[in-house]
Request: fold
Amino acid sequence: MSPLLQVRNLVKHFERGGGLLGGAKQIVRAVNDVSFDVGRGQSLGLVGESGCGKSTVARTLLRLVEPDEGSILFDGIELRSAKSAQMRKLRQRIQIVFQDPFASLNPKLTVRQTLSEPLRVHKLGASREIDARIGRILDEVGLPLAALDRYPHEFSGGQRQRIGIARALVLDPELIVADEPVSALDVSVQAQILQLLERLKRERNLSFVFVSHDLGVVRHFCDEVCVMYLGRIVERGKTADVLDSPLHPYSKVLRDCSPVPDPAARITLSRITDEIPAPTNLPPGCTYHPRCASAQADCREKVPALDEVFTGRRAACFHPLMKV
Amino acid sequence: MATATPSLELRDLSTEFRVGGTWHAAVRGMSLSVARNETLAIVGESGSGKSVTALSILRLMSGSSARHGGGQILLEGEDLTRLSERRMAAVRGNKIAMIFQEPMTSLNPTMVIGDQIAEAIRLHRKLGWREARKIALEVLEEVKIPAAAQRFNDYPHQFSGGMRQRVMIAMALACRPKVLLADEPTTALDVTIQAQILTLLNDLKQAYGMSVVFITHNLGVVAQIADRVAVMYGGEIVELADVDTLFAHPTHPYTEALLRAMPRVDTDTDSLRPIPGSVPAITAMPKGCAFAARCPLRASICEAKHPVLAPLPDGQHQVRCFMRAPQSGEQA
Reply:
């Protein structure tokens, strides 16, 4: 069976400046040649630092951002060429959960209105059926029925995120794009929401594209992970494999810099590594080479492809940290 | 580790907020001390009172809706709560400095960073602009801003997030404070930049023999930087221990629960165990233990009586729990 989602050679550029006051026009290469698959019931993590393009990739999957090149096949249908009527149908099957549950819920709508709106838009059932359905969904995400006629400001951050998840579930989607869904929450609440997402994934056989900067959360939730750097995927593989034995030097740095609750495992920085270069002015060759400890001459000349290093493990690096 | 007189000591400090006409304590009877060359981490979730504690130390929490609710703040033995506002202003940014989570909102966007630092120096030292700028450049170099002399005349928006936080640290350190209060200084930063800033703070602490109070919600960051740790819940310390002891033998049920709820990057966790419920509001603080409603070890005494922060038999480790720490005079 072919995977639910197939993304091939996705490219997105943004233009910056060029206006009367904006200074010289610059091109921000946000996403460069990104390809991945997500199977049914699988979760794929996109990780990387700010500006690596992970959120842009997530948004192109719903065409909230229109990609410039490449293809996005959802259940065999090309999203980029879908007409608006077809796209509306597809949007029932792909839903998004945002990071900030304070900003992503309409403060003027009650929970009932928020949850029934998608059903009305898609003309799914009469009022009574809609009521029954949102009641079931509310129960599924662990909120009481009494929540229905209340407004978002009456809820805590964790409860609001449950409402955001309920809104995504109400159309019975097959794929959920989650953009940092637990980053704004405290640890104890974060664990509650992760547990909820896991249960939904299992019970509904949902697929996830899960964007996060927190490798601990990704390790816990995602079957596979793509490590992104400056718009490119630099490593892809099973999450535990990538984190336990990273192949790309950047994956290793990212893992080593993620603090763990163990004073015996303190990070020792061998040197002050530089910061990420601006995406308007990418370095030639491998974009990571200026920060890379194992960079060699070829890294400055050619862009490494995301090739299979050994079975099931891909890294875009001429000198991966492990070889067969 | 601890020397005779701590640089900073809080004794039974309380800070209250006015909510709907009545005063409620957001920080309740907080006592702790930080020695020279020591980093004390205060860890807790939103609403635990950790930031309010830091703001109270600098008396930035007063006004019509917040007040000092009692207790002492001793800086090298001198009680700050007794100082006039004018003398307090001479302490802020001078003997005690603070850095915040979001450096962009803490820097003046219309002033080049070198002059901002020089201005802070001139506020506390009788120096001309020329000398103040010279010191400003020195501290910018100390916080390892590349090409500091060229960047001296740049505006905050021309810096990246990590570099802005370095500028903030430079400004905080310009007057050689005895105590640095750091309120979630790396929370808005990427992990690689966070690691750099934590390393920098640790190096500077040792170079100056400063005391650092490091406020964070992230137990991973605590393990990275702290010498001692205070875990806060519901406006009070529930566990206090040195960093190795805390992570090796977490004893308060809340500390245990926090560690079990945190997904780790280095090991597979089959199932996270969330903490049911949420933090009590300061207007609805229970009479007994603040954590009782969410605690798996809850007994009737926990809801009836308020536990004290009691030392464990092994010495330095203190825990506020009827079930885990013997409460003198009440239990065997």
Q: What stands out?
A: The mean pLDDT of chain A is 91. DSSP finds nine helices and twelve strands in chain A. Chain A touches chain B at residues 49-50, 156-158, 186-192, 194-195, 213-217, 219-221, 240, 243, 253-267, 269, 272-273, 275-276 (CB under 8 Å). The radius of gyration of chain A is 21 Å.
